[in-house]
Amino acid sequence: MSGNVLIAMDSFKGSITGNEAGRIIAESFETCLPASRISRILLADGGEGSLAALEAVTDDMMTFSVDSYDPAGDPVVSLIGYCDRRREAFIEIAQTDALPMVDVKKRNLLEMSSSGVGILVKKALDLGAEKINLFLGGSATVDAGAGMLQELGAVFLSDGHKLEYRGSARTVMEADAADFSSLDPRISSVEFVGYCDVSNPLAGPEGAALVFGPQKGGTEDMLKLLDRKMVSFAGLYPGADLSLAGGGSAGGLGFAVASALGGRLASGSEYFLGIQDIDRKLDGAELVITGEGRIDRQTLDGKGPGMIARLASQKCVPVIGICGSYESDFDVRNSCFTSVFSILHGCCTPDTAMTPETATANLRSFSENLASLLSAVKKL
């Protein structure tokens, strides 16, 4: 059997990088389907792994280490990318604002801050960036970017008194005024672009607090109150637009980039697929294999695997989705996927399933089984 197989994998968060997942699947297919032509692209959507994916597909970006802070305020060394020729910086916010960084015992959603992102932005400004790209995904915070903005010079007040603690969800709950006059003056001459992996607005039933807050440790009552407070807090930002698609990305960092920093929001998936000439590669493909740690309804709403599945289906190319788990009521027939499979083949705890060793072994085993099955089919 022969055919052109395009492999486009995103990361299995906390377990396998997208590059590693793609390599494992490619090796299985090359062994079981030696007549097939295997090609790979790196998939990223603005979340974890975006900077590594960008570094792998570009040849003019340098990376710099930056001393920053994680969401709980503990020191962390983060990376940013920079292209001197274009005066362009690339910041993956998950380098400094990511849930796995924070020990479970330290997770308090009200205190988690995006201030580390502000430190990375300042480093980009110090390098001379005229354009700053922020990959907005995988955050631990729901602070509407208050921490980032405070680090950049913004002041938040309550009853006329300056809030001295690190900007966080507590700032959203308490602040009734904001002063942006002390923002780093270099910001006004820089183009900001926030690349999102979701299209959720800042507040409301599909907003940052109610949709993403539960996985970040927020209780139901806390998140309902935070969502209500988010509406009034957003009004403190110049150019506020609560209907902005993607405003809820990264706990509201998308909203802060667009309103307080004067930037624009765009699809992270489209950006990464575009720089890898996806249209041409799909034209020659007879099968696409894509996936990430979990496939659910959010996958179809701006995530990398959902985006490439949509593009492939428009060209009538079948798409197999591979994941660690998928939503029990995920409607494959009405999605862009031909079929979706979980790599899990035995009972175990989520913590065990997500260890790199277990996830790698499961992905390899599944890939070999899938390739063996396809080798028995005469035609893709």
Structure description:
The protein is an alpha/beta fold. The chain folds into two domains: 4-43 and 277-375, Glycerate kinase, domain 1 (Rossmann fold); 50-269, Glycerate kinase, domain 2 (Alpha-Beta Complex), CATH 3.90.1510. The protein has helices at 18-32, 50-57, 115-126, 146-151, 169-174, 208-212, 220-234, 253-259, 268-275, 278-283, 304-314, 350-353, 356-375, and strands spanning 4-9, 37-42, 62-69, 75-83, 88-92, 131-136, 155-158, 161-162, 177-179, 191-196, 264-267, 287-295, 319-326, 339-342. Strand 7 (155-158) and strand 8 (161-162) form a beta hairpin. The longest helix has 20 residues, at 356-375. It starts with a strand and ends in a 5-residue tail after the last helix.
CATH architecture of the largest domain: Alpha-Beta Complex
Uncertain segments: none
Mean pLDDT over all positions = 92
Q: How many individual domains?
A: 2
Radius of gyration: 21 Å
N-to-C span: 8 Å
Looking at this protein, list some descriptive labels.
Rossmann fold, 380 residues, globular, five-stranded parallel beta sheet, Glycerate kinase, domain 2, alpha/beta, 14 strands, six-stranded mixed beta sheet, 2 domains
